[in-house]
Amino acid sequence: MRELSxxxxxxxxxxxxxxxxxxxxxxYVEEITDSKKALDLxxxxxxxxxxxxxxxxxxxxxxxxGEELQAMVGxxxxxxxxxxxxxxxxxxxxxMGFMGAGKSTVSRYLKQKLAMDEVDVxxxxxxxxxxxxxxxxxxxxxxxxxxxxxxxxxxLQSRRQTIISxxxxxxxxxxxxxxxxxxxxxxxxxxxxxTVLERVKGSDxxxxxxxxxxxxxxxxxxxxxxxxxxxxxxxxxxxxHKRVEQICEELLRALVKLER
Length: 260
Ligand code: S3P
Description:
The chain has 260 residues and is α/β, with parallel strands linked by helices. Helix content is 64%, strand content 9%. The relative contact order is 0.13. Shikimate-3-phosphate is lined by residues 99, 103, 122, 133, 167-169, 206-208.
């Protein structure tokens, strides 16, 4: 049996090699991101990611520590994505748009693809108030809810590399837009009233729409807010009849272009 000190020094050597390789890997990630930016190539390459993962899982095979190895590979992949997103843009992404415009879906997808942090302003309010949104509206009214919303947005100012998903009405207060702009680029997601209705009709969680679940009401409120949305937006992405992958790809390329 080998001396413990000898094995330990082999282990140290192994760590050094791993660290060197990890640094090298992050360098490649940086290089890939730079060339995607320079050549205006697709940012998200889900097929390539899937292929790489498949190859790695195959290489792990039926190793007795397969589960641990897969977890490590996942961590490496995720760190690479974080480096990629940091290299793409150094700001938060604030998602705005009418109820049902797809903010939560887009946020979830971006979080997964870029390993960014994700926060939903409505969820922050629910947590702060310890009460669902519709109860806040029912008990204290919309003005009170808007105050909570503004406070939650201020609270989020310390976040970095975060996707901030805003409630559809956050745009009605100018201060919210100004506060978001301090650390974020604002992405406006749009959808037609018909699409919005399709997406929200199954839920009773939006007090503003309860009792108003029809295209006419949605259209009217959307038009009232349209100018505010447009003025706030750094980037506008239409979501009608598009898959989340396409929306996110458009959004990221538009954000990268902003930085040029
Ligand atoms: C609202 C939108 C909701 C929520 C609240 C008010 C609005 O968020 O903040 O019900 O005034 O448009 P979502 O846009 O995430 O549904």
